[in-house]
Amino acid sequence: MFRKCITAFLLAIFTMISVTPTAYAVGTSSKEPQIRGEGAYLIDVLSGQTLYMKNPDEQLAPASTTKIMTGLLAIERGNLNDIVTASPSMLNPKLVYGTQIYLGPGEKMPMQELLYALLLNSANDAAVTIAEHVGGNLPNFVEMMNQRAQEIGATQTHFVNSSGLTEAGHLTTAHDLALIARVAYQNPTFAQYVRTKSQTISRSKPNTPIQMLNENKLLWRDSSVDGIKTGYTAAAQNCFVASVTKDGRQFIGVILKSPGHEIWTDMQAMFDYGFTQYKGSIFKPAGSVISTTMVNDEPVNLLTDQPIYMTQKIDEPNSVLNLRVVPSSSSPLRSVNEGQVVAKVEVLDGNTLVRTLPLKSSRTILPRTIKSSTISNYLPWIRGFIIMGVLLLALLVRRKVVSNRRWRKQMQLMGRREPNFESRD
After folding, report:
1. How far is Cα 418 from Cα 406, in angstroms, rounded to an integer?
2. Which SS3 state, helix, strand or coil, does residue 250 take?
3. Are 76 and 339 in contact (CB under 8 A)?
4. If one looks up domain 285-361 in CATH, what number appears?
5. Residues 6+ apart with CB under 8 A from 338
6. What is the pLDDT confidence band of residue 330, given thresholds at 50, 70 and 90?
7. Which phi and psi angles does 214 have, rounded to 5°?
8. pLDDT of the residue at 333
């Protein structure tokens, strides 16, 4: 009964602190926001272009924003229907301390409920349990985290644990974290989790936390904010990754190592700057011909089935994105099906890669059959033999004609007439 009262009280508090959604009105100051965090980044999700940055490549401790990667890998590599068993690691104070749901060794929970504990409540014991289940052990899962970061392009990120607790070498940058968050949020399952305000989970142990409350205060205050993750340690200070969606546009903001509660207003100031000072447009609509390739000496158009978006500063000259086509294979294509992915296009803002999209074939080209290939290969020889045959026949005919003429002349000289083989009555 007491626990239910506490839960109701906390929900009431979160409801009371909710305010009217921020009005991102056009006409506000064009000055860049003064973010008090050590590092900050604002990215347009659709175009991938940067709208604001502060010390974007400075390596900083990410605290529990680390759990963005942990949650993404759990969804990508794990199974939400798995029943996960907590290991004796739950008793290791070097691995598990701080925010917890107090998992006990041998306790079983569905993966989908552990993710609520991870992404809403930021439970460190849930982070370790998920890592051990998905990776087999914690070091192997951390290796998976670092490999996935490299695939995303977060080259200045190095994870040492799955929770974000302070540990030497556990670092990221505001830029890298924005890239990771952008990829994670594009996973619909992940997005559903991080936009959830509260969720009750089931527990087999009595007197343990069951109400998971999202610690993202802007999620409760502003209806246009729809994720993602907060974090805090004494070393990392306040960290925050947030997503905002309004009028078909979505931004992801990152603030690292902020000294205090101003992180909430700083994030809203960064969002306000993006909405009022930048506009989005379509650079290339879906179905655009980006390039052409040759298949069996026939041209095939390469199309993008998604729009290529562009973000640019309002009242500034239109910028142009650079497109770089990268074939899927270095070998010549012998056949292709309509809609088959045969290349990719890299979208660059200057020299910065902001997005990569697949390119698909506009039509089907069937492979040449063995018979047609053989005829095609020997066609010059066949033509040559035919020409030689015609010339030889013509020579023989000419020789026969000349021979007949000579015979007739000889008969005339001898005073003889050619025999007449006509019948007589």
Report:
1. 13
2. strand
3. no
4. 2.60.410.10
5. 361, 362, 363, 364
6. confident
7. -70, 130
8. 86
Question: Using CA atoms, how far apart are residues 105 and 87, in angstroms rounded to an integer?
Answer: 5
Distances from the Cα of 127 to the Cα of 124, 132, 215, 279, angstroms = 5, 9, 16, 38
Please give the pLDDT value at position 416: 54
Compute the residue count for the chain: 425
Residue type, 257: K
Work out the percent of the chain whose per-residue pLDDT is above 70.
87
Cα–Cα distance measured from residue 182 to residue 145, given in angstroms and rounded to the nearest whole number:
16
Instruction: Quickly list H helices, 32-110.
Output: 67-77
Q: What is the pTM of this model?
A: 0.79
Q: What are the tokens at 35?
A: 């973010």
Q: Does an H or E element contain 109, and which?
A: strand 108-110
Q: Cα angle at 193 between 47 and 48, to 5 degrees?
A: 10
Distances in Å between the Cα of 249 and the Cα atoms of 147, 225, 284, 358, 394 are: 30, 12, 17, 22, 80
**Which residues make up the CATH 3.40.710.10 domain(s) of the chain?**
2-276
For residue 24, the SS3 value is coil
Distance CA 239, CA 176 (A): 14
Neighbour tally for 203: CB within 10 Å = 16
Integer angstrom CA distances of residue 120 from 114, 199, 228, 302, 378:
10, 8, 9, 43, 71
333-364 burial, b at 16+ Cβ within 10 Å, e below that, comes to beebeeeeebbbbebebeeeebbebbbbbbee
- pLDDT tens readout for residues 134-155: 999 999 999 999 999 999 999 9
pLDDT confidence of residue 420: 52
Tokens of 255: 């603030």
Tell me the CATH number of domain 2-276, given options 3.40.50.720, 3.40.50.10090, 3.40.710.10, 3.30.420.60.
3.40.710.10
pLDDT of residue 4: 45
Tokens of 302: 């390469």
